[in-house]
Amino acid sequence: MAAVQREERNMPETAPMKTLVSVEKLRVEMPLGAKGAGVPIVDGIDFSIGVGERVALVGESGSGKSVTARALMRLDRYARVSGRIDFNGTDLVKLSEREISRYRGNEIAMVFQDPMSYLDPLMTIGDQVAETLRIRGVGKAEARKRALSVLDELGVDKAAERLNSHPHEFSGGMRQRVVLAMALIGEPRLLIADEPTTALDVRIQDQVLDLLDDVSARRGLAVLFITHDLGVVAGFAERVMVMYSGRLAEDGEVENVFARPLHPYTQGLIKAVPRIDQDLDKLYAIPGAPPAPIARPGGCAFHPRCSQSFARCSAELPRLLTVGQGARVACHLHDRPANDRPVNDRKEG
Amino acid sequence: MLLTIDRIDKSFHSFPNPPTQVLHGVTFTVDSGEAVGLVGESGSGKSTIARCLLALTKPEAGTITYDGINVAHAKGEDLRRLRREVQMVFQDPYGSLNPRMTVEELIGEGLLVHKLEPTAAARRQRVAEMMEMVGLNPNDMQRYTRSFSGGQRQRIAIARALVIQPRVLVCDEPVAALDVSVQAQVINLLQDMQKRMNLAIVFVAHDLAVVRHLCEKIVVLHKGVVVEQGQRDAIFDHPQADYTRSLLGAVPVPDPVAGKARRMQRRLAAVNR
Q1: N or C: which end of chain B has fewer CB within 10 A?
Q2: A149 assigned to some structural domain
């Protein structure tokens, strides 16, 4: 199945994927502590996204997944971002505010959870979609023409008439299409979708996913899809990264992660998805709640909720180990001499 | 029957526009101790039904009968009994709990209002028992809701509803705002409480997978019309209405191979059309 999908996009399975973004030791601190002391929301993560690749970033509320995504566009003004974000040869961390603004919308674009709060209720749809281009100095008529073609591409009915409508005249699914059009009009190479379907009904969610699937295939667009629900991304993503309390717990190809989840946390997340095709007496829930970043437990942050934890888990931070076929996991259960190849040598500090 | 909803109509007026009818002759029943799922998309009228059940709004036509009380016309002692025996849990545990009240005040409020426990000490005792029951630590009684996570807040909301021992619990999308990893905790809690207190639950949701686990009976709504209702197995295994089938078909399958196959198939179908 995976092979078929790749052929369709002229991407033979054997050809190595070109890297679009490569993130190294990314650390994001927010000034939330006493006297504005930095609290590390994202605590040293490494990953890369290939050209046209769809990656899912999965984690619970407070795991740092949105902060990671926002750091890629440097959206949080007060966040202290360190490490390296290599986008096509440029380190985005080092750019000035003025320089990074050239990347926003043109190279990297973002779609947010609640389309209504990101649309200006007093501005017409046409003006909002065209705004990205107008800011870049594109003429009014030209920007409007392109807004029309993007809305058309995204399946907005009678797009020409609706350019003059306001957001309140659109349904939830249609608003999400408008927000998507705003993101895509600058022809970015990476689209960050932050829980784009969480506020939507199942049928609309399905339509939006189909749409993202189509657009990303047609444009060779890389997508970083952020969600707390592994079930949503199973049919969409090629790769899944699981984040827990500011660090990566697991990273692997979607088929492998679902068939053989390595980290106990990933196993829990998969089991927790309620299934429509199975009857169970009791639904599975991961016990407890994720820790606050200010009070992260020592050792592996997941150990208080983990059913397989042992002495070493509370004492030592697990390294992110490469365990074959581009799969990585940060868990002492897998830290055996045979596959002992650290990819993250950073000491806990 | 504990609760009978008989052919209710409801419209909303928004002058100068003509009124919009949101419920068209909705009919179903809830037995005591039974969990009924109301399923439908935004705008299907499921929350309006929930509000009608609690006498928060009145239907224009049709009747709702709770244990011999006509809900729309209840007053005096009847209305007080209705308000005590039919309780609600809302969707957003961040918006439905007063941030200026402690957990004890929040959970004990119903006891105070309905004069069920005259002394503060007895109320505190009941609150502590209830907190224990829903999996909260009674030592957290004096804390405010801001220090609780979404799942814990929803437990507080459930404790608050259940402390006065209602017979019907109406839940309006109680897990939609929660992470998947903790939503099962809340569903399992509701299931436990249903069994322990012989509670009837009216569960409003758009997530069919969740409804399947909790509800024995399912009512499918589309634009204010009941398109199908029946026992769980009948609805899930042999759906009759096209709308039910399309709802079931849209539920994401947490299996990459099946999920991608389905998406491919749909894309091929779209091309051939």
Answers
A1: C
A2: yes
